[in-house]
Amino acid sequence: MTLETPLNLPFLFRRIPKTNLTITSGYNGAFCLLEEESQIENLIRNNYERLPQDKLNELEAKSLISTQAEYALKASLHASSLATQIHRSLAKPSLFMIVPTLRCDHDCRYCQVSRAPINAEGKDLSENKIDNALSLIEAASGDDLKIEFQGGEPLLNFEFITEFIGKAKIKLQNKNVSYVICTTLTNLTTEIADFIKDENIQLSASIDGDADTHRHNRPSKYYDSFDLLQEKRKLLAEKNLDSKTSYIATVTRPSLGNAQELAEFFNSLSIDSIFIRPLTPLGFASSTARSIGYTADEYMDFYTEFLKEIIRINTQGTLFVDEMALIHLNRIFRPGSTQYVDMKSPAGLVLGSLIINYDGKVFGSDESRMLWEMTHSKELIIGDITLSSDLDFTHIAKTLKDSFLFALPGCSECAYQPYCGADPIHHLATQGDPIGNKSDSFFCNFQTLMYDLLFTMWHNSDDARKVFRSWLKL
Amino acid sequence: MAEAIRIDTAEVIDAHEWSGLYVFEKYNLPKTDIPLLPRLAKNTNKQNEYLILQPFSKKAIGSIHTLKQLDHFSPGDIIYIDGQHGKIRGILNKNANANTLLVTEQCDNFCKFCSQPPKTQNDIALYEKATLSILNYGRSDLIGISGGEPTLNQKAFSTFLKTLNSFHNTTPLHILTNGRGFSDKKFCNEVTEILAERFCLWGIPIYGFESQTHNTLVEADNAFIETVSGIRNLLGAGQAIEIRVVPVRDNLKDLPLIIDFVQSNLAQVAYISLMNMEPKGLARKNFNSLFVPQRDQNSALLEAIELAEVHSLNIRLFNYALCQLDESLHKYACKSISDWKNYYTDECNTCNKKTECGGMFTSADGRFLENPRAFK
Q: Considering Cα of A40, then A46, then A47, then A51, what sign does the dihedral take?
């Protein structure tokens, strides 16, 4: 590409703080990491002759710059990529969450609106609503879907789950359905374990850390939550259900200084992956926020150490996946591939997921349900299976219209736009506006720092790159 | 040295007047000294006889006594009797690992490594032969359509597909094309409409990440832009695309950039195939300027494959002998060389990976054969 002057195609860029790297990215999802301050200057000012040949080749192959002869073609390829990405996002929801009960035997510190006392009345989804729920799911879903039972603690209404799955087998027989139960595991019995095995159900269980951490975050009035969890994990192992169980860890403030210990603890459990996540800043009081909450910067300082330790563990020969990092790596290297509802543009609200609450009300995401519990804003409701299996998108459509990242202030110029997602309910809940001010947004700050970290590690650390590649191969 | 022979041919005699396409059938014919059907072979090994049927009419035209080479053929195969040379050639063969029909020898690219250099004479008869063969073949396996450039004569190409449709034929096709014709959206739409009820995989070459390298290798101006627009249009119409790359000296170091190009611009492709050059035709003529020993390609192949995997692109190696590849690459290697143009050397016959390996091109003989090393 020396014969003629190249041209820039539209690209986004960001200087990654505390590094000498600048990331450039295109609407086609391609990125190129420039290594010195001068490289981005030279690129922007069209001083191509001052850029190293390998960077020029990379920029050209990825259609971030182009020869004049190929410019029209490349521009149309960008347009096609963007159209494909939008088309793919305007899909039918593939995740259907159901809340069989709001009752729970835990009193987790970060959960106040998603639970009711264990013996509360009127907090269960009645079995006579199953037909309507299935009609709704059948009509709204595509060929492949996941049904996830959430809570409360769903195993406290196990009869609902068995009846639901029995009926779903008939009603949804022409679709590929997978099932997940999100559970504390503490109500697991031999009978339930057998059912889970027979029906090939996945379990998603919470474990926040070692005994002290877990007990602190996830106390129960009725038993020692950590000891009982460990006992139930033994039952899972006896029933060969280990490979069917994945683990989620929610981080609270007291853990911030223990990143390394936490990673080592999870690895000691002989599990092959962990999904570690920050608190959802919804659903608990502000007084609680002061004791367990943190800023995105504080969390990412913790997470950086945590991920480094996970990579060290992998480098020493144990395959142990950090699912949160992997979700982001998938977004980086396989734009459009992940179904993770928080990382979609337009938002995954309704387009990615639906949730049927214990009272029969239908929402577009788990966060919408929580926000409804806090505010009772009718606009969040898109259906009610106690009345019919129909859905009404009047209000949600307005929110979705404002969730295309390339048209959002704070996102339209962000280099991570091709990889990120819109989370209007988060911003509605925290800032009172579905778009929100991104500089003050936990979601935005968290995602930005996450991508800063992953791109930097990908570029600077041979070990991290090797480990990331091995995860992406799974 | 083991001799490179083609297994898809058999001898035939006294068949001067029988030249043409036939369907092959096996029947127990009466053992008699007075055959009521013409005998096309002298070999009088009195066993089962094979019957040769006229396409469409299913009228018997002659019989052949068992010949060893005929074991390769099965009932329903399409064969071609070349009376002049006394040969029976398999056209569509149930036992073959791949069936490919040549529909034209004309092309608008002039690839430096083309194994079947383009010709200019009118060869529409090849399209007729291909049509007849597909319609009479007794199976619905994937059939390759190759050239020349099958879409160069756009009218012949769409008529070919329409004719198959009119006989309610839905044979899936693997069409090897340079894709340039599909840069014309009208042609692309016309063809994809005709193909609405048929699965097609389009094998389309990209030899560089930008115009210069690609156009130089295919010796055609503007080819890169037209090919890439063609792929874009086909993808837009929901077609399945296989990108084919032939690593040679000019583009070997650019393989990762070609992967970057595909991921960034054409990420919806179904496959990327890295295809080792066949030392035949123009590749033989330009051998010295193009050839990179397979062993010296390993690091570039590995880098390209690792990158493709990061992006979840489906990548495979074709026409590489396992003994020339690093072990880490074995799982990507397809046993790909068509069985009528491959052979195994004496060394290969002592190798314990022989059954997983495609062996050598028949054309890879003498100095074109890269020193095979048996796995023991």
A: positive
β-bridge partners, B146? B102
Which of B182, B272, B310 has the highest number of chain A CBs within 10 A, making it the mutation to test binding with A? B310
Q: CATH no. for residue B130?
A: 3.20.20.70
Q: Which among B328, B301, B321 is positioned nearest to B370, based on CA atoms? A: B321
- CB of B201 within 8 A of CB of B175? yes
Domain count along chain B: 2
Domain containing B18 equals 9-90
Peptide linkage before A346 cis (omega within 30 of 0): yes
| Closest residue in chain A to residue B255, using alpha carbons only | A61
Please state, in angstroms and rounded to a whole number, the distance separating the CA atoms of residues B207 and B212.
10
B356 assigned to some structural domain: yes
Angle (CA) A14-A19-A23 rounded to 5° is 30
Of A422, A393, A230, A248, residue with least CA distance to A323: A248
In sequence order, what DSSP letters do the residues of A66-113 get, joined into one string?
A: E-TTTHHHHHHHHHHHHHHHHHHHS----EEEE-SB-B-S---TT-SS
pTM metric for this prediction? 0.93
Summarize pLDDT for B146-202 with one digit per residue, the tens: 999 999 999 999 999 999 999 999 999 999 999 999 999 999 999 999 999 999 999
Are the CB atoms for A413 and A21 separated by under 8 Å? no
Kindly list the residues from chain A whose CB atom is less than 8 angstroms away from the CB atom of residue B232: 76-77, 80
Q: Across chain B, how many H-helices and E-strands are there?
A: 9, 15
pLDDT tens-digit profile of B63-82?
A: 776 666 677 788 899 999 88
Q: Is the pLDDT of residue A3 over 50?
A: no
> Hey, how many other C-beta atoms are within 10 angstroms of the C-beta on B44?
9
Mutate to test the interface with A, among B229, B264, B307, B313 (most CBs of A within 10 A): B264
Residues B126 and B249 in one domain: yes
Domains of chain A: 7-88 (no CATH), 93-375 (3.20.20.70)
